[in-house]
Specification:
Blueprint: E1 2-3, H1 5-21, H2 23-33, H3 38-51, H4 61-75, H5 80-95, E2 101-102, H6 103-121, H7 131-146, H8 151-168, H9 192-211
Antiparallel strand pairs: 1-2
Helix pairs in contact: 1-3, 1-4, 1-9, 2-3, 2-9, 3-4, 4-5, 5-6, 6-7, 7-8, 7-9, 8-9
Magnesium ion binds near residues 34 and 35.
Length: about 210
Amino acid sequence: MSGSTQDVELVVRTIARAAVDNERYFGELDSVVGDGDFGYSLARGFEKLLEGWDDLDRTDAGTFLKRAGMIITSRIGGTSGPIWGTAFLRAGMTAGTADAITGDVVVAMLRNAVEGIKARGQSDVGDKTLLDVLVPFTDRLERELRSGADGAAALAAAAGVARESAEATSGMVARRGRASYTGDRSRGSVDAGAMGVAVIIERINQVWQTEGVS
Ligand SMILES: Nc1ncnc2c1ncn2[C@@H]1O[C@H](COP(=O)(O)OP(=O)(O)OP(=O)(O)O)[C@@H](O)[C@H]1O
Ligand SMILES: [Mg+2]
């Protein structure tokens, strides 16, 4: 697997469109034990990114992701702004000026994004957040790529893990974010951010299988 800046653009645009299209669904998920603003926050932020799309600096994948991260940080409200913005910034820092985004680079970008979220959110795997999808997704992607799977096959397998992991958050008690204020009552429903990330990953997988990478 080896992609280009255009492939990174395709993935970011897919994330943005999925966030806009799922505003209502993500909001409903967050309203079960959270305050219901997750869908709205994400949609408004990514809408801004799409509005300014043509003017984004696309000198290289790293610059593009860092610019996107800055817009996201400033435009997404609440907790999600810094968390998602940091993830894009960290991914951009790892991508740097590489013209070829290899499988190893993608995994390193995801790992750095995860570290950024942990630092920003003072959170970790097991707290019932989007990390409970992002980390097992990255682990599986890395395992598939290491065992010789091509990018499309690795992503398909990892997308399945993302969905299962999001569903598994239903059995967990929230330890971060507004949902944690409800204590034990947060058990029995999936985490909004975790399911949001899984839905977005599934959308990337769909686009990837049809449009492919260079
Ligand atoms: N500290 C955190 N670290 C990592 N992820 C978090 C953290 N807090 C919330 N999340 C994720 O963000 C999702 C909710 O996003 P949202 O923007 O609605 O934040 P919130 O917790 O409702 O706080 P606020 O309403 O103050 O923004 C959660 O479902 C969870 O996955
Ligand atoms: Mg919320």
